[in-house]
Amino acid sequence: MMKTDSSDPLVIAGKAYSSRLLVGTGKYKDFAQTREAIDASGAQIITVAIRRTNIGQTAGEPSLLEYLPPSQFTLLPNTAGCYSADEAVRTLRLARELLDGHTLVKLEVLGDPHTLFPNMPETLAAAKTLVADGFHVMVYCTDDPIQCRMLEEIGCVAVMPLASLIGSGMGILNPWNLRLIIDQAKVPVLVDAGVGTASDAAIAMELGCDGVLMNTAIAGAQHPVLMASAMKKAVEAGREAFLAGRVPRKTYQAAPSSPTTGLIAPLTSNAKT
C-alpha cells in the first residue's frame, strides 16, 4: 500500500522530508502567529526573505530564529526583492554567513516590481554562480520547460515554476506547461507562487508536482492558522490522489459504477387493471 508519510518522502539535496508543503514567513501580524501557522501547516522547510526579515543581521530587534530555530526547521533563505543576479548572490552569501554555512537556498530574481515575474536571464546567471560557489539552489522560475531544463543542467536541486503571479491567488493557469516540466525533470518540481486556496494546492499535487511553496495564501487568509491546516490536508490529499491514479476521462461515454452482469430479473405483475 502506498503512503504519503516517511515511506514517500520529498528528497531535496539528499535530505528527506515527510511534508511536501513549504511555507513562507512574511505578511503575518507577528512572529508568534507565524509560528502558530507553521505548526498547523506541518511544514518542515520554511523560506525566509533575507532582505525583509531579521535573522540576526539587525542587532537589538526580534529575530525570527527565536520562534523558528534551525534545530527544529530547515530554513530556506530567499532573495525576494532582488532584481539582478549580483544582488541575489550577495544576499545569499550573507545568509550563509548568518546561518553558519547553510547552503540550501531559494533563488528568485524578479523582473519588475509590478508583476514580480522572474527575470530568467538574470536567474540563470545567478544560478550558475551560486552552484559553482557550493550552494544547493532551489529556483523560482517561469513555467517554461526549456528554461527549467537549463536550470537543472546548471545543477539546481529543485525547479519551482510559478502557477500564476506571486500573491495573485489565481491558482494554476497553465497545467499543461507544468506537466511538460514534471515529465522531463530529474529533480523535484514544486509550484511556487499563485496558490490561493486549498484546491489549488491539491491540483498541483494531482498533476504530479513534488511539493508546493506558498506564503500569501496562508498569511493573507482571514484565519491564517486555519488555512495553514487546510493547506496541509490539501497537499496530502493531492499527493495520495496522484499516487492512486485517477480514472481516465471519457468524453460522452457513461460508465456504470455497478456491475452490469448477474442482475436480478425485474419483478413482473399479473395484476389486472
Overall description:
The chain is an alpha/beta fold and 273 residues long. The chain has helices at residues 31-41, 85-98, 120-132, 145-154, 175-184, 198-207, 216-219, 224-244, and strands spanning 10-12, 15-17, 21-24, 45-49, 74-78, 104-107, 136-141, 158-161, 190-192, 211-214. The protein has a five-stranded parallel sheet with strand order 5-4-3-10-9. Strands 6-7-8 form a three-stranded parallel sheet, covered by helices on one side. The protein has a two-stranded antiparallel sheet with strand order 1-2. The radius of gyration is 22 Å and the shape is globular. The model has no long low-confidence stretch (mean pLDDT 90).
What order do the helices and strands come in, and which of them pair?
Layout: E1 10-12, E2 15-17, E3 21-24, H1 31-41, E4 45-49, E5 74-78, H2 85-98, E6 104-107, H3 120-132, E7 136-141, H4 145-154, E8 158-161, H5 175-184, E9 190-192, H6 198-207, E10 211-214, H7 216-219, H8 224-244
Parallel strand pairs: 3-4, 3-10, 4-5, 6-7, 7-8, 9-10
Antiparallel strand pairs: 1-2
Helix pairs in contact: 1-8, 2-3, 3-4, 4-5, 6-8
* Radius of gyration computed on alpha carbons: 22 Å
Largest sheet: 5 strands, parallel
Report the strand count.
Answer: 10
What's the end-to-end separation, in Å?
A: 58 Å
How many H/I helical runs?
A: 8
